[in-house]
Automatic annotation (TrEMBL), chain A:
Protein name, entry field: Glutamate synthase (NADPH/NADH) small chain
Matching Gene3D superfamilies: Alpha-helical ferredoxin (1.10.1060.10), FAD/NAD(P)-binding domain (3.50.50.60)
Domain of life, source organism: Bacteria
Database matches in InterPro entries: 4Fe4S_Fe-S-bd, DPD_II, FAD/NAD-bd_sf, FAD/NAD-binding_dom, Helical_ferredxn
Signal peptide: none
One of the record's GO molecular function terms: iron-sulfur cluster binding
All copies of domain 4Fe-4S ferredoxin-type, residue ranges: 24-58
Pfam families attached to this UniProt entry: Fer4_20 (PF14691), Pyr_redox_2 (PF07992)
SUPFAM superfamilies registered for this protein in UniProt: alpha-helical ferredoxin, Nucleotide-binding domain
Organism (species): Paenibacillus algorifonticola
Automatic annotation (TrEMBL), chain B:
Protein name: Dihydrothymine dehydrogenase
Domain of life, source organism: Bacteria
GO cellular component: cytoplasm
NCBIfam families cross-referenced by the UniProt entry: PRK08318.1 (NF006183)
Family label: Belongs to the dihydropyrimidine dehydrogenase family. Belongs to the dihydroorotate dehydrogenase family. Type 1 subfamily.
Reaction(s) catalysed by this chain's protein: 5,6-dihydrouracil + NAD(+) = uracil + NADH + H(+); 5,6-dihydrothymine + NAD(+) = thymine + NADH + H(+); (S)-dihydroorotate + fumarate = orotate + succinate
Length: 452, 433
């Protein structure tokens, strides 16, 4: 294979946000189409309960600051969510106009209002009067930021410990730039920082700061560390040059351009949200061919319908009912092929259909890179060090207060997702962060005041 | 955060947004729900003798897919006994001592009747009174409402009677179904009114059903005129408010009413002289929660303008409103089309070609691309093209320098009179006025 060249300019264009924001007339026309329902189903469908009719009416009346405030008040990462929420399954799916017309473009309107706030450098909230209590938040992703924002408004002194160089978590590093530019997430981080929240980046709990110190110096701790690396497939060849962890792969494109995928044939293993991101990312990096290899069928994949459509439009091919069996490399230790085996689905008593290999069906896909997107492991060592109850790294919490087995520690976001608990969406993480903050307020302030 | 409080002729309210006397303020339950939602005041639905109402009362005018551009009603004043209303007013005021509760009143035009009702409502703690001289249907046939509101002498006398008994501020609500609103506004002022509120509804027939040929609405096959309100009446109301605000003989505060649907409308009325506003149709269309954006939008607007109080808005545009005879006849604007914004729908061209001054030309450039251009020397500055243009920013009306000095019609007539031929000039000026 010859050396393919992709210019930095092309790469930058490929990674610019795909979808254009609404034009003013478009937003005004659409906002005036909203019926302003009472007890609106869109609101109920939003995990953070944004007062959607209200923010839309404010766009119609020209009160854009009020509109952005209504959105961000309920959802501290509302600008991100306007871009990444599966709106057809949430607010827009619930819109009453689905019956008689087409639903209101709630996500696009939400983006219009929050974009206005970003471009006009609006500071939307202020911190509450100090209540003398301190809260440590481990992890500066959507759940952690959301908890920090609400706690700061209640008057807590909040410190966020973020292992990475920037806060924002998945929103900053884990979602491809052409769907979510990094500056959107960083604006949300800045909104929280401006409330006086001390966001300490490059600060890893357990290494740079001890758990004992947190327990001693803070009245409560919120664990919002999300998930970790993609697990190993347990097949031969995973350490070859050209095998990537999808999370790391997407992250590498958020801050820099990479030219090593141009002209290559790529196989992405898995069919979840991250798999779609890794696949479309590869296309935009100039890959010659990108295949998603998934052991189940389209009906079972966890990616959203809009993500599936987006990937197809980008030219991603889908290899259904196919499981990787072995990654083959050359003498230099570089990937040259992926050996696969065809699967069939076997019905099970409960849950998803189980894929079973079809005997003697192995075949070889010639590829130059393999990206693993088969879920994420847990930050087990830290969870164990904290000594809180968990099931295989999924922290057990009270479903209303998000309190863990340790009364001083609360947990929200992906760290509590799994085993039938929680949801994997950014918007759910934001809501859980809020709930944890309300529970901390109740425990440390409200109940103390009432008993005083 | 600006101070949204207002004080209208001594009636204090946490914000300028009141519900007008109408169906939304029929009961204590409703008014209290409204206060909970954020409304600053409410004018209770007009009290008076128990009334028999009709069934089938409202109708609306929808415009190109938008519902309720205008709204028409044939409902009468309260249909609940006075004692019930008084009890609920008392309870409401007790629960919301800082909100403005105004009683709207309508009785037969007699001194005793006015004294009696004023004393009854003031005894339960209202913050002010609003005399309903405006209702155009039902009551007018009995010599009340608009029937008395159309006669300046009756407005003056009844205001005086109410004032004789009143301890709280008296607001006189005016009907727009009259040629010159300032005639009754001045009469109210002479009668001692503390404030006026306007406009009440305009005589209207909402429509006729094309299949049954019945009026909309109809009551058992017959219709009668109703009162029109909602967004469609706003310009009529705004003019009447402005005419009263700039009339030196109407030197009392104004409560603005008529098609106010959001904070922008409220700001316009306040700039044109209203101290606060009253809303009905928008609340009937969407519920009480619309006040949330009214408050929030006004607050953000005042912050943006660097104003610390809503009261600072009052009357700021009144001095800019005058008579046609005072407008500068030599001021000139022309239309300018911005090609980069223009979508070449040709609506401006056909509007100008068919219905104005034929000065927007259609051209094609060397690349075969169509574009439109204004022949500025023939443009009279009528604004029509910019009005029909669907794209914001595609047509702007720009001022062009005039070779002549500013000169109004009145100045022109004076100048002509000054250089002789006085008789002619004076008489033509008189004819024009």
């Amino acid at each position: 294979m010859g050396i393919a060249f992709i210019s930095e300019q092309t790469l930058r264009r490929n990674f610019a946000e795909v979808k254009a924001g609404m034009k003013r007339k478009e937003a005004v026309d659409e906002s005036n189409r909203c019926l302003y329902c009472y007890d609106a189903p869109c609101m109920t469908a939003c995990p953070t309960g944004i007062n959607i009719p209200s923010f839309i009416k404010k766009i119609a009346s020209g009160n854009l600051k009020g509109s952005a405030r209504t959105i961000m008040d309920a959802n501290p990462v509302g600008a991100t969510c306007s871009r990444v929420c599966p709106t057809e399954e949430l607010c827009e799916g619930a819109c009453v106009l689905n019956h008689s017309s087409t639903p209101i473009r709630i996500g696009d309107l939400q983006r219009y209002a929050t974009d206005w706030a970003i471009h006009n450098e609006q500071m939307l909230f202020s911190a509450g009067q100090s209540n003398g209590k301190r809260v440590a938040i481990i992890g500066g992703g959507p759940a952690g930021l959301s908890a920090a924002r609400e706690l700061a408004r209640f008057g807590f002194a909040v410190t966020v410990f973020e292992a990475k160089e920037q806060a924002g978590g998945l929103d900053t590093y884990g979602i491809v730039s052409f769907r979510l530019p990094q500056e959107v997430s960083l604006w949300e981080v800045e909104q929280v920082r401006q409330l006086g929240v001390d966001i300490r980046t490059n600060a890893k709990v357990g290494a740079d700061v001890s758990i004992e110190q947190l327990r001693r110096e803070y009245d409560a701790i919120v664990l919002a560390i999300g998930m970790s690396k993609v697990p190993s497939l347990g097949i031969e060849g995973e350490t070859l040059d050209g095998v990537f962890d999808a999370i790391d792969f997407v992250e590498s494109t958020k801050t820099a351009v990479r030219t090593d995928i141009a002209g290559k044939r790529v196989a992405v293993i898995g069919a979840g949200n991250t798999a779609i991101d890794a696949a479309t990312c590869s296309v935009r990096l100039g890959a010659m061919n990108v295949k998603i290899v998934y052991r189940r069928s389209a009906a079972e994949m966890t990616a959203y319908a809009f993500e599936y459509d987006f990937a197809k439009q980008d030219g991603v091919e889908f290899q259904w009912l196919t499981a990787p069996a072995r990654i083959i490399g050359n003498a230099k230790g570089h990937v040259t092929a992926l050996e696969c085996i065809m699967m069939e689905l076997e019905k099970t008593e409960e849950g998803r259909a189980r894929p079973v290999p079809i005997p003697r069906s192995t075949f070889k896909l010639e590829v130059d890179a393999v990206i693993l997107a088969i879920g994420q492991t847990r930050h087990l060592p830290l969870i164990e060090q904290l000594g809180i109850a968990h099931k295989r790294g999924i922290v057990t919490v009270d479903e209303s207060s998000y309190q863990t087995s340790d009364p001083q520690i609360f947990a929200a976001g992906d760290v509590v997702f799994g085993e039938g608990q929680g949801e994997a969406m950014v918007v759910s993480a934001a809501q859980q962060g809020k709930k944890a903050a309300y529970a901390i307020y109740k425990q440390l302030i409200k109940l103390q005041e009432e008993s005083a | 955060m600006a101070d949204l409080r207002i004080n209208l002729a001594g009636i204090a309210s946490p914000n300028p947004f009141w519900l007008a006397s109408a169906p939304p303020t029929n009961t204590g339950y409703q008014v209290q729900r409204a206060f909970e939602a954020g409304w600053g005041g409410a004018v209770w639905k007009t009290l008076g003798d128990p009334i028999i109402n009709t069934s089938s009362r409202f109708a609306a005018v929808h415009f190109n897919g938008q519902r309720v551009a205008g709204f028409n009603n044939i409902e009468l004043i309260t249909d609940r006994p006075l004692e019930v209303n008084l009890k609920e007013i008392y309870e409401t005021k007790k629960r919301f001592p800082n909100h403005a509760v105004i009683a709207s009143l309508m009785v037969e035009p007699s001194r005793e009747k006015w004294h009696e009702i004023v004393k009854q409502v003031e005894a339960v703690g209202v913050d002010g009174l609003e005399l309903n001289f405006g209702c155009p249907h039902g009551m007018a046939e009995r010599g009340m409402g608009a029937a008395s509101g159309q006669q300046p002498d009756l407005v003056e006398a009844q205001t005086m009677w109410a004032k004789e008994a009143a301890q709280t501020p008296v607001i006189v609500k005016l009907t727009p179904n009259i040629t010159d609103i300032t005639a009754t506004a001045k009469a109210a002022t002479r009668g001692g009114a503390d404030a006026i509120s306007l406009i009440n509804t305009i005589n209207s027939l909402a429509g006729v059903d094309l299949d049954s040929w019945l009026t909309i609405p109809h009551v058992g096959g017959k219709g009668a005129h109703g009162g029109y309100c909602g967004p469609a009446v706003k310009p009529i109301a705004l003019n009447m408010v402005a005419e009263c605000a700039r009339n030196p003989q109407v030197n009392i505060p104004i409560s603005g009413i008529g098609g106010i649907s959001n904070w922008r409308d409220a700001v316009e009325f306040m700039l044109m002289g209203a101290t606060g506003v009253q809303v009905c149709t928008a609340a009937m269309h969407h519920g009480f929660s619309i006040v949330e954006d009214m408050i929030d939008g006004l607050n953000n607007y005042l912050d943006d303008k660097g104003l610390s109080s809503a009261m600072e808005l009052i009357g700021k545009s009144v001095s800019r409103y005058s008579d046609w005879g005072d407008l500068d006849l030599n001021y000139q604007v022309v239309a300018r089309i911005h090609e980069e914004e223009c979508i070449v729908c040709n609506k401006c061209h056909i509007a100008c070609e068919d219905t104005s001054h034929q000065c927007i030309e259609r051209h094609t450039d060397e690349g075969g691309r169509a574009y439109l251009k204004v022949r500025e020397e023939d443009c009279v500055g009528c604004n029509l093209c910019s009005i029909v243009c669907p794209v914001e920013g595609a047509i702007s009306m720009v001022e062009v320098p005039s070779s002549a000095m500013p000169m109004s019609w009145n100045e022109r007539q004076e100048a002509i009179a000054g250089i002789g031929g006085e008789g002619n000039a004076k008489s033509s000026a008189r004819e024009a006025v």
